Each structure stands twice: as C-alpha cells, then as structure tokens.
Amino acid sequence: MPSARAHACTDPKHHVHDAAGYVAAVEAACVRRGLRLTPIRAHVLGLVARAEKPLKAYDLLDRVREGDGPGAPAPPTVYRALDFLLEHGFIHKLESINAFVACHHPSSRQHSVPFLICDTCHSATELEDEEAVELLDARARALGFVPQAQTLEVHGTCARCAAA
Question: What is the model's pTM?
C-alpha cells in the first residue's frame, strides 16, 4: 500500500488567509480558466470565506439580504452562484449538514476531499488526503461501479472540543 500523501495543512483556513485574499485568488483562477466571477458570485464567495464555520444555505440567504453586496438578489440567483462556485471547485458542500465551506485550494479544479465535522463547535476540516479518495474510487471500480462524485464526511468531536 502506498504511503499516505496527506498534507500537513489541516487548518480550515490553511489557504484562505482572509476573505478578500481568497476572493482575489478565485478571481485570478477565473481569469486563468476563462470563467466569469460576477459580482453576486464574488459576494456569495466572500460570505462563505468569511464564515467561521460551514454556512447553511438559509443563513447565506439571510446574509446576502442584509449585507452590503449587490442588491437583494432572489434565492434562485444565490443558488445559481453557489452552483457555479461548486462546479468550479471554489467551495465544497457538506451534504450531511447542507452547508458550504471555502475550498483550501482556490486555484484547483473541482475535487473530492473527506471532511471531519465537529458536532460540538460545527467546524469542518478539509482533509487533504488523496490516498483516501483514491482508495474509495478504486474499491468502487473493483465492484464494477463507476463513481462520478464522492462525499465523505466524518462526524465526531474535534481535538479542541474534546480537550475542553
């Protein structure tokens, strides 16, 4: 079995130094890829990047309505912005809690990553472990299954909460 290729960076803000810097990194990635980061997409991205924990869709809609962003867009407009950000790998959706988090790698394309979700403080840690993703993919293919997407979310208690 190959050795783990997990990165040492497991802090949820590892590559997201600040929301403005994160949005700037995504803007640069969009230019390189020929994508259009509209004002509403950038605003939604900034809200997700500024959130201290995974941001649920309804909370995001509330923040869009009360924020200083472009107008008060209708929910379908916000959901279309989320779809764009998800499709291009700028954010991840945590299916088990129906919430969104910024991706550690704004320059990379859409990819599968496992998440550790603390049920106490509601933090989400993106595990940068390609081996785990590849192992699940290989096991599925060995059974004749053709995977199209992976969602691996492990719920429990983070080290900070366990120590408290």
Answer: 0.79
